[in-house]
Amino acid sequence: MTGAKAGQAPHSSAPGRDKPWIFRTYAGHSTAAESNKLYRSNLAKGQTGLSVAFDLPTQTGYDPDHELARGEVGKVGVPISHIGDMRALFADIPLATMNTSMTINATAAWLLALYIAVADEQGAPRTALTGTTQNDIIKEYLSRGTYVFPPAPSMRLIKDVALFTTRELPKWNPMNVCSYHLQEAGATPVQELSYALATAIAVLDTVKASGEVDEATFGEVVGRISFFVNAGLRFITEMCKMRAFAELWDEICTERYGITNPKQKLFRYGVQVNSLGLTEPQPENNVYRILIEMLAVVLSKNARARAVQLPAWNEALGLPRAWDQQWSIRMQQIVAYETDLLDYGDIFDGSAEVTRKVEELKAAARAELARIDAMGGAIVAVENGTMKRALVESNAERLTAIEAGTLTVVGVNRWTETEPSPLTAGEGAILTVPETVEMEAVARIKEWRSKRDQAAADTALAELAAAAREGRNVMEPSIACAKAGVTTGEWGETLRDIFGQYRAPTGVTVETKSPEMEREVRLLVADLAARIGETPRLVVGKPGLDGHSNGAEQVALRARDVGMDVTYDGIRQTPGEIVAKARETNAHVIGLSILSGSHVPLVREVKARLRLEGLDHIPVVVGGIVPPEDELVLKNIGVAAVYTPKDYELDQVMKGIVQVVHRSIDNHRAAAAEPPAGERRPGGAGRAASRG
User: Fold this and answer.
1) Active site (annotated) includes residue 617
2) Distance in angstroms (rounded) separating the CA atoms of residues 595 and 603
3) Is 542 tagged catalytic?
């Protein structure tokens, strides 16, 4: 019998069949060498592009031995501190033929400089380099938090990368307008459309206003802007959103910028499907969620993603293993090669329902874009907190709907009865990063600095500083820094000294609205207030470099709504700053939010500082992606309660926090009533007054 081989669809090489999108997984951890092994393994399994995840110190411009890097090295991505690390990351991977996506924003110019320096060493022509730097700082202010500099110099750096790549790397996308994280922060489809398009407008307006481009070059810049979007479970809406994105982008290119070349107006996008909806309870259900979300961005030919990367089914539990990532790659391959999806034109053209929904989304997005434009554009809307506050409010509505049961999440708020999952059983069910990774990274970077040509590094840094001060493009000086052995922290510190640092609005203000509901927990907070004689005070802190602030924002907002006095100063706080705030506010409880996997070392440091300051009577609760074994560790070092994604009912979390404060008061009273060893107190134990 002849025909297709097993596992190969007979039509897979039929004439006229569309090429599949680029298959990627978002990956990187521990060290450059370990990440390189993972990349080469995934490529051997049929992955066709790389998507590099960098750790938080790299994303925010710190070396592994910096105070703020403590606990964060290698946790959510790979640490890249200098050209030696970049060489190791891409060892035996030819950059001349690889399509590489780098999720990097504030330090995008630097990581691209390191990439180019390694490509130069490999002999890869710069004109052959293909890939993308995410480089979208506006969404960092709104949702992901790995910004460094204020908006104006940040936009200048994006402009520098865009103009340099247009001239030197014509196949490179200098920027992904990244609506993915907007949806992760709670954005509605209309907000995702309008905020992302407003971001693209802000970047292109910055390039145009620079006076550094003629009309032809500006058209090339427009043609290299790409997008990175999110696809959630509302399958029809998400597919219509992508069609709306493509049509609105064509309108903006034509009407606002006068672009006539059809290739320059193409809406080119990659996608990672929604991680916000992945559940910790019954995590095996996430496989179906991921598949459905992927279909929303590949079924419509006229709005099909150029590249797709899928999360792993167990990302709500921790870092996925290589096997988990393989499962996601196989999902893409089955859809692309075993189905007949790529044999047909757009199957939604002519649908009245699809047309109606697309037009509805476009009209609402145009109205929101006009409102942002009238305000002065996306940067103004970032600085005055308008967009951030709207995202916090949208996310609050989503969470309230899940709590109330009006939005069904299978296995979470309905059909919660379950059989034990064999996929999560036993040791090694999730990947963990050894504690030794950070110590080894610190030792390696000290050795690197000691062995390089220090004079060459100093000269390169001086030229970088001069270019930054004088308004010259920083890319060539950054490449020179890379080749001279400059480190990520040194590049970051040089530009911090010139541009300054920035703290974006939190979105949690007295104006922030949340759904009105009768909440039983308000009575419990009132009872606690009566017991202590004042309003209970909660300090919400985000130690370390983790910028994913959704959970902290929603806890702060709900605690305010149920009657607590809440202090939340935003992301990237040191343990010392959090403890100082607890002292300043005379806090009754501290809530720490950590989603980077660095909870154990950071919480340990906060607890140690509380003891040092004589404040260890203040109870600490922790929220984040915390494996069960780490929960035991946290409780052993004195954490009063641990909350993970399964604890989606915020009112129940509030009740738990109230109980924690009550227990703290009881424990203090009992301790105060206990006589010292060898001493008896007449009349029994007695009672002590509460310290509040």
Assistant:
1) no
2) 12
3) yes
